[in-house]
Amino acid sequence: MRINSRMADDIESPVLSKATFYSDLNGTSKGEISLILSINPASVFLRASIQLLLCSFGFTEGLILQVFLDFAVLTLPLCLSVTLLSDGALHILLTEVALSFSLLFLAIQIKSTKHKYIPLKQLGQTPMEGRLPFITNFRVLNNIGVAVGILAVDFVVFPRRFAKTETFGTGIMDGGVGAYVLMNAIVSPEARGQYQRSGLKPIMKSLTSSLPLLVIGLGRLVSVKGIDYHEHVSEYGLHWNFFFTLAATKILCTLILLFTPVSWSAVISLSLAVGYQVLLTQHGLEDLVLHGTDLNDSREGFFNANREGLVSCLGYVAIYFAGVRLGQYLLQPRKIVSEWLKVLAYLLLADVILWITLKHVEARKGLTSRRLANLPYVIWNVAYCLHVLCGFLLIDIIMTIIRHHYLAKDKSRQLSLLVSAIGRNQLLYFLLANVLTGLVNLSIDTIHQPDVTAFGIVALYLFVLNFVLVFFHQKNISTKFW
To answer: How far is CA 440 from CA 9, 20, 75, 437, 457, in A?
Structure first.
């Protein structure tokens, strides 16, 4: 569904117009979403290839060049794929991959000191240890994708099939929340082996780390209600929002770990997801979430007012524990390429199994629903995150081999300036994106903007976000104090 200006003009109230713009959407195919998200690792691949080529010429990237290259290569391709070039995602992906290999070939021809054939066994013994970029790239590029979506969705240039679905189905924005939960779980203290069960200490630490999210959530609630900002009530409810979900998920996970060891994360995730689905389909919880305690869409009382946000936390907790288990596996020390190739193979196998499982679960238990965060939604989030994570890991392996064997053990920077900057202050980036999105919506009538104008506004907003985060990074400022 794609609303046009005439349709918007037919709706008298601006608030009602916004509500109609976001309502009754059914999403797109999971394949199209995976295709678009594959652009993120391809963009990182292209950025690394450009950097190596410039290094092969002996050229050092200055700060200004880094800022503009990062913006053009890491931000714009995904932005274009969900706006002006929404039907050309495959062409964008293939173009980036082709350019990347072409630039790498050219860099090797210019700088390489070895042109002989290297046996596969020797390639497998290539050193690949220490802190690897692929997890950071995965987390940061997902953040950039969320930032693109939360503003672009307010414009007609953003196809309605990509927006959040009403109840069932998958839009590209439906995966943002789940991916955000999973990507934080991968590097959580639980995943890094730093979680300690000792009395009330874990609870206090969890509450302390969740406090900024609760404060931001309250701030968003007050501001939205105070300025009569458009709301999609069926997303989380009347008062609940994404920040409350993040805080509640963290606190619930801490409470669960008071009674179970972290090593059981996979079992906890599976048990929660399946048990929650049983409650939804066999014990009436789905009808309660969708239609209220009176089954007549009541919003009376705190629970009915926020039933989607409250109940769906169970699904996000399942995703969090899946992320913890994934992080435990990925963060194990490995020294050579062949060990990481085994990781890649296992992740791909797990991904295939998850996609097959998802197909069978949807056939028996119902379609994916972000609103419910049901079992299909949990499986889908883990599956597509694995898909994207595999792309980033493959790039790390390729770049490690090329740097070591063909570019005289090139020691050039592996993380781009923008990725380093956002990685340092990820919550600030997300918060600033929300603030700027609100300011843009209050300043202009977004749904009546021509496509090119809309794209220009979104691109400028992304550039401002990048600039602020790079500024903080250059000044060595970290906003995380808890």
So the answer is: 20, 19, 19, 5, 9
Could you state, in order of their start, the residue ranges of all structural domains in the chain?
196-317
Q: Is 27 helix (H, G, I), strand (E, B) or coil?
A: strand
Greater model confidence, 80 or 221:
80
Residue 108: its pLDDT value, please?
Answer: 87
Sign of CA dihedral 346, 352, 355, 361: negative
**Average pLDDT of the residues in 400-407:** 83
Confidence of residue 63 (pLDDT cuts 50, 70, 90): very high
* Per-residue pLDDT tens digits for 124-144: 888 897 777 999 999 999 999
HSE, side-chain direction, 13 A CA sphere, residue 305: 7
Q: Quote the Cα angle for 28-34-35, to 5°.
A: 95
Mean pLDDT of 189-196: 86
**Local structure of residue 303 (DSSP, 8 states):** H
- Report the share of the chain in percent with pLDDT over 70: 93
Distance CA 444, CA 436 (A): 12
Question: Is there a contact between 122 and 417 (Cβ–Cβ < 8 Å)?
Answer: no
pLDDT of 11 > 60? The answer is no
Tokens at 259, concatenated: 């009674």
Backbone φ and ψ for 454, nearest 5 degrees, come out as: -60, -45
Phi-psi region of 199 (alpha: psi -120 to 50; beta: other; left: phi over 0): left
Categorise residue 171: left if φ over 0, alpha if ψ from -120 to 50, beta otherwise: beta
CA angle 386, 390, 393 (to 5 degrees): 135
Q: Please provide the distance, in angstroms rounded to a whole number, between the alpha carbons at the two ends of the chain.
A: 43
Using alpha carbons, select from 135, 258, 254, 242 the residue that is nearest to residue 189. Answer: 254
Is pLDDT of 1 > 50? no
Q: How far apart are CA 82 and CA 155, in angstroms?
A: 11
115 burial (CB, 10 Å; 0-12 / 13-18 / 19+) is: exposed
**How big is the chain, counted in residues?**
482
Please, what is the average pLDDT of the chain? 89
Among 181, 140, 141, 142, which residue's Cα sits nearest to residue 326? 181
Whether the CB-CB separation of 257 and 251 falls below 8 Å is answered with: no
